[in-house]
Specification:
Number of domains: 3
Number of helices: 4
Largest sheet: 22 strands, parallel
């Protein structure tokens, strides 16, 4: 482990609460609101409070590294220069334009004074690798408490963003596209947080690769798609040192699709133990869905909890959940596991992985295997072995989801098979859904990553009693308090409209996708109301 051990991160999936607490814990004052911060909060331009010597530096395409860097007018030209200078508590604001990559390797932050590299707006592009290795766009190595936020890192020879031999690094809200091997790569990185990133089009391998012996990663609310191999790959790899085990991982709220042309899984786990995987949406992946196994890892993947995921495999895919030899003590609860392959199915478990295996309250394709796919059973025969007593066979994609063909995997309505059909045994891990809606919303937990709340469904002919209504085909927010703000969020909680000030009555934009979540806040930032709006 790099540096002093610390207590394990407390999971907080309320982004506006977490972002505010994060800023206050880091001694930063919220100064400027900007619509490009994703998801539940706005871009935070931060001035440090903890020390009179901490600085906010600026980098611009019109700057000069001979300047002071202390204002936009006196900005530096290269992000690398900022990386060489910035110390604990400093913030580096990189303004729109194209830049050579950079390495942060000389200085560490602290828990109360991290070093923050933040792109201002959505147009900060890293267009060539960092000089340190000429392979990766951004490299954070042998340091602690560094934040990388908001960069576009595309077309690198190896990884868009890499962190290695590090501790408490946060990689947030970056876009890593068409990189040679990986979108984001970690190696021996303890307590890393990888959140709200887009990782797509990795040419050789994975969207996100969490590698080597390291514990306590949080990988949440990322969008990983069209990568050649895995969407998210976790590999302890004992051959490179350490115990070869990844423990206490939290992997949740990720959207993962179109991966696996070269094999792998949507979520791939080699040597991963005592971890949780929940509220993930996986669809149209061409290999496995979620795999727990040991090849390179220092131990089999054991003691994991796979809860409330929606997995819909492509017609050329493998199994939705794949648990291989020796991977005992895993639990599979409240998942939608639909496989469109003609003969592969929902769950394949090796016979020596059955001790401690628990599976129930799932919606499955009626093909399951207790011996690693050598024998395929229908649900009735599978239940006779003592598994999935309260599970049932899927009625069909079009009868489960609003519009699977367009990527909308919400329940089709109150009569959907998944509604209120889950178990509350997951409640200590899954208090809400992928959209942060509280569970349960109805009489019981819904199965899958979404929780249906009929009060949030607003259609052409639906009027709510709490401030939203449809007028001549347009949704209106009615009676918003003076000084309030409204913003629209997409399926991953990413801000796609606003935020903007509002009072009284005002029309709301149509969603660019199949739905949008409107969030209304009071002047003090308190959430007054949220409503998911579809089909208008």
């Amino acid at each position: 482990m790099i540096g002093d051990p610390v207590s394990k991160a407390v999971k907080d999936r309320s982004w506006d609460t977490a972002c505010w607490a994060n800023c206050m814990n880091h001694g930063r004052r919220l100064l400027v609101l900007h619509p490009m911060m994703k998801p539940f909060a706005t871009l935070v331009l931060c001035f440090p409070l903890w020390s009179a010597t901490a600085s906010t530096f600026h980098v611009s395409t019109t700057g000069n590294d001979g300047n002071s860097g202390l204002s936009l007018a006196s900005a530096w030209r290269s992000v690398q220069h900022a990386g060489d200078v910035a110390v604990a508590g400093d913030s580096v604001l990189v303004h729109p334009g194209s830049y050579t990559g950079f390495a942060a390797m000389d200085h560490s932050g602290t828990s109360t004074a991290p070093i923050v590299f933040m792109a201002v707006g959505s147009g900060v592009q890293i267009d060539s690798p960092c000089a340190y290795n000429d392979l990766d766009g951004i490299n954070v190595e042998n340091v602690e408490w560094v934040v990388i936020e908001g960069f576009l890192v595309n077309g690198m020879l190896r990884a868009g963003i890499r962190t290695a031999l590090s501790d408490h690094i946060t990689i947030r809200n970056n876009s890593c596209t068409d990189n040679g091997k990986w979108g984001i790569l970690t190696g021996f990185a303890e307590h890393v947080i990888i959140e709200h990133n887009t990782c797509s089009g990795s040419v050789d391998e994975h969207g996100i690769y969490f590698s080597n012996s390291a514990d306590d990663p949080i990988i949440r609310y990322n969008h990983c798609f069209d990568n050649n191999a895995n969407g998210i790959h976790m590999n302890g790899d004992v051959s490179l040192g350490g115990d070869g085990i990844i423990s206490n991982a939290q992997v949740y709220g990720n959207m993962i699709h179109g991966n696996g042309t070269a094999g792998g899984s949507g979520i791939n786990c080699d040597g991963v133990v005592n971890s949780v995987f929940f509220n993930n949406l996986l669809y149209d992946n061409h290999a496995s869905g979620i795999s727990l196994y040991q090849i390179d890892g220092g131990a089999p993947s054991t003691g994991n909890r796979v809860y409330n995921n929606t997995v819909v495999n492509a017609t050329n895919a493998r199994w939705c959940v794949n648990i291989t030899a020796g991977c005992t003590g895993n639990q599979v609860l409240n998942n939608i596991l639909v496989n469109q392959h003609p003969f592969r199915g929902s769950i394949a478990v090796a016979d020596d992985a059955l001790p401690g295996f628990v599976s129930d309250h799932n919606i499955v394709t009626g093909r399951l295997s207790p011996d690693g796919d050598a024998t395929i059973l229908d649900l009735t025969d599978w239940q006779a072995l003592g598994y999935d007593a309260n599970s049932f066979t899927a009625v069909g994609i079009n009868s489960l989801f609003v519009n699977a063909a367009s990527g909308d995997f919400h329940a089709i309505g109150a009569g959907g098979q998944q509604v209120d059909a889950g178990t509350a045994l997951v409640s200590s891990v899954v208090p809400d859904d992928i959209e942060l809606n509280a569970r349960p919303a109805g009489a019981g937990f819904d199965i899958g990553c979404y929780e249906l709340d009929l009060g949030t469904l607003v259609g052409m002919k639906v009027m709510t009693d709490d401030g939203f209504e449809v007028r001549n085909g347009t949704l209106w927010l009615v009676g918003a308090p003076k000084g309030s703000q409204v913003e629209g969020l997409d399926a991953l909680g990413r801000c796609c409209v606003g935020p903007r000030s509002i009072s009284g009555d005002a029309p709301m934009e149509r969603p660019t996708g199949s739905w949008i979540m409107w969030v209304l806040r009071a002047a003090d930032g308190r959430v007054i109301n949220t409503r998911r709006v579809a089909g208008f």
